[in-house]
Amino acid sequence: MLALVVGLLYLVSGRTVRSQDATGSRFVCNAIPPGAEPGCGYGPTGNRVQSSSSVEDELRNTIIQLRETILQQKETIVSQQGTIKELNSKLARCEAAAEESSQGKARGQGSRRKEYGKNTMGDLPRDPGETIDQLGKTMQSLKGRLENLEQQSLRLPSTNVSTTGGVSALSPLPPELRELLRQRLGALETQLLRKVAELEEEKSQLYNETAAHRQRTESALNSLLERITELEKSNNAFKSPEDFKVSLPLRTNYLYGRIKKSLPEMYAFTVCMWLKSSATPGIGTPFSYGVPGQANEIVLIEWGNNPIELLVNDKVAQLPLSVSDGRWHHICITWTTRDGFWEAYQDGERLGTGDNLAPWHPIKPGGVIILGQEQDVVGGRFDATQAFVGELSQFNMWDRVLRPVDIVGLANCSAYMPGNVVPWIDANVEVFGGASKAPLEICEDRAFDS
Q1: Residues 287, 289, 291, CA angle at the centre, nearest 5°?
Q2: How far is the C-alpha of 171 from the C-alpha of 40, rounded, in Å?
Q3: Rounded distance, CA 267 to CA 407, Å?
Q4: What is the pLDDT of residues 274-297, one digit of tens each?
Q5: Residues 231-266 pLDDT 10s
Q6: Alpha carbon distances (Å) from 288 to 187, 194, 413
């Protein structure tokens, strides 16, 4: 770059000389003030001479630009030289550190090997083979110590301690101590077994009590659920499940009611009901109970001009009852297999008794109870001339003979006692063929009729 500037100055000076020669004039060199540009036309007094040539102005501008470029490149070179020096110093330090590290590594290998040999619980050796050998030796040592403990399981440490390996010397137990230890262990085992037996017994008792309590709870819940179901299925018009009546207005062979519950085997019974009828001749059959092989197991019937009759196993007894006046009447009939003794009550008053009605004959189970019809076969083949015409309510049945005081309480509405075999509940009664169920509070209705 300096050569380029010198060349340009040489060209400018030569061109000036040639112009002077052409004009026949000459130049006189004058001093240039500090900081002034050369060849800029300064006079003897130091004042700048104004050039009239455009070429000189162009050259002057070029020189100024070249000077600025030279200064910038000089600064760049200085900066790069500083960077190179800094990199060289860093490289020198790195090389020195590497040499020291390699020398220290060579010196420290021996000491580290010694340390590894002294303490196997420190850092592991760099060589995997040495690590595996060391672990194998450790495992072998542990195995030997374990076998030694197994062989000496019945021995205790003695007071003398051996200095070899730092392991206590072991001696066999004395026979007296061993026997005492065995007895003590036996006593502890006996106590443990006794405690286990007591815990098992308590567990069994607790399980039995829990099972019994669960059974009682389930039974109570089932009874409650059954009662709720019966209430839900009952007619919403009834104030309670038992306050209803069955109406059989026509004498046909297709109007009837049916009790869903059947009877168990019985050796006595009591049947009570409320009747209202004015049909003639005879009110018909208020109820009948038939079993396979005997359609007339129990029948209450007033047929034609005959009196009311009670049939048990197709044996007949005439009852001194009169209920065909179109008013509500409460009737109860009791019977026992002993001597075939029977009683007939009307409106709480006993009007007749008798015996020898199917004596010693138990009432057979598994039959069908029909309201308003007499059965020629179990559950069917009705005769219209024997049909009941009127209204029924509070048909209840017990498997025992009720006391007269109980029957009086039912008749005068001072007591309510549903049958333990057949209770009068809406859910237990079905009606067919045009028979109907309707709300009825029998005691209020009877008081109104009287």
Answers
A1: 160
A2: 122
A3: 20
A4: 999 988 888 999 999 999 999 999
A5: 666 544 566 788 899 999 989 989 999 999 889 999
A6: 77, 66, 26
